[in-house]
Amino acid sequence: MIDLHSHSLFSDGTETPEALALAADAAGLRALALTDHDTLAGLARFTAMQATVRTLLVPGVELSCRFLNRPLHLLGLFLDFRDPRLVGRIQQQLALRLERNQAMVRRLQDRGIAITWEAVAAEAPTDLISRTHFARALVRAGAAGSPQDAFHRLVGDDCPCYVPFPELTPAEGVRWIREAGGLAVVAHPGRGVPRGFRWDQPMRVLKDLGVQGFEAYYPDYGPAEQRYFVDLARELDLVPTGGSDYHGGHKPGLALGVGSGGLRVPDSVLERLQALRTPEPPAPWGEGCIIKS
Length: 293
Ligand code: AMP
Ligand code: MN
Ligand code: MN
Ligand code: MN
Known about the structure:
Elements: E1 2-3, H1 17-26, E2 31-34, H2 43-48, E3 56-67, E4 70-77, H3 84-110, H4 117-121, H5 131-140, H6 147-155, H7 170-179, E5 183-186, H8 200-208, E6 213-217, H9 223-236, E7 239-242, H10 268-277
Helix pairs in contact: 5-6
One manganese (II) ion binds near residues 5, 62, 187 and 245.
């Protein structure tokens, strides 16, 4: 069993990187990727746990991109999180996110909602502040009945107080990941699109940009959807990855490895990803050197 998508409290999960590594080991996972949103801050602590656990700990990230006029999340797996260029790029994104967050606070205040920047920041254990933290601050302020209510009326993608931050193009996201030695994988393509949406053509476009796989296994998918994505990956020769998108207490009902119960990402996916990391060895024979039997 493997799980190539999870979050710690360095983005919008509730658990430490150490706790995730230990839980993965206890659950018998062969591999777990930590893929916090737009930050690398948890990865040193996560990978330091490799000395303690049997589970392969895969350093990753989930980059916020925009494609087809909607959010597209791009996972970077096996990346060098100390790569100075990547670290600089992520730092810039964080600054833009901060500006976006302050604009969202102003919008909420303009609508008469008693929320402050300090109250939002207080919900986040690190400097990565996301709408998950807004939702919790709004509940605490009495402006929403539940985080879901906050997303429904105030800070969800189609809500008046949502301000998008300048998300990356998929081409930028792919470049950021691959230049840091990572593999670029589209997260949950089946989520947030109209029912029956066909990814055949868009995924070809993304493949041409350098995407190497996409999540064909994801807790939200039904059996038909999973089959569609597994078949599509085969057709396009992309790796069908997957994971639980575990967020601890911020997304209840999910467990590492199994998601909401039925998730099962084949171990063979790990081998396929690892084969992509290793550059193809040059063929031992070239033209004019035909091995005769
Ligand atoms: P941000 O990156 O700050 O725009 O926040 C995006 C995060 O908010 C996502 O990664 C989800 O964890 C969360 N989120 C977005 N929409 C919803 C929703 N409708 N319900 C619950 N969580 C959501
Ligand atoms: Mn999240
Ligand atoms: Mn996502
Ligand atoms: Mn995620």
